[in-house]
Amino acid sequence: MWNVLLSFSGLVALIQLLFLPFFPESPPYLLLQKGDKAGCLEAMKQLWGEGNYHTEFDDMMKEKTVTKGTKIMNVLEVLKEPSVYPQLSTMLLLILSLQLCGLSATASLQESIIPYVSLGVAISELISIILCSSIIDHFGRRILLWGGYLLMALILVLLETSLLL
Mind telling me which InterPro entries this protein's record contains (predicted)? Predict the structure, then answer.
């Protein structure tokens, strides 16, 4: 029944994919990244209802002026920054622990290919982390979430179809 379990995560991804276009962008993202003041206020009204949000808006404007001179770093610059080593080591530990959880051994694979499957999964996770973190600033979070959920739903539909055939 593991294929039903995989289908459930695809169903959740499909539901999220259908409802994501109806949610507004994050107000701080609209103001700080895009510079869209009107869009920020509209998103605040849509998320929080009618009201006076000038205090929150002023706080975001102060944050914008504080971060105005801050340079946005790419992936290689972040990896060279010593202040992020604790966070990077935590992420690395998480990825390694996922590789040691035994998922490859429970997938009914031949014992001789399990190390290669684990290595392939680890490499694909590393590539996806680097790729996603480097393009998220270019496209924005909404498009990446939408595309990711669409791709995940498509892959799971193809997986279910291939299992049925």
Answer: GLUT, MFS_dom, MFS_sugar_transport-like, MFS_trans_sf
- Which amino acid makes up residue 66? V
What pTM does this model have? 0.43
Secondary structure of the chain: what % helix, strand, coil (to 5)? 80, 0, 20
**Cα distances (angstroms) measured from residue 151 to each of 97, 154, 158:** 25, 5, 10
- Answer left, alpha or beta for residue 70, where phi above 0 means left and psi between -120 and 50 means alpha: beta
Among residues 10, 1, 2, the alpha carbon closest in space to that of 149 is found at: 10
Burial class (CB in 10 A: 0-12, 13-18, 19+), 27: buried
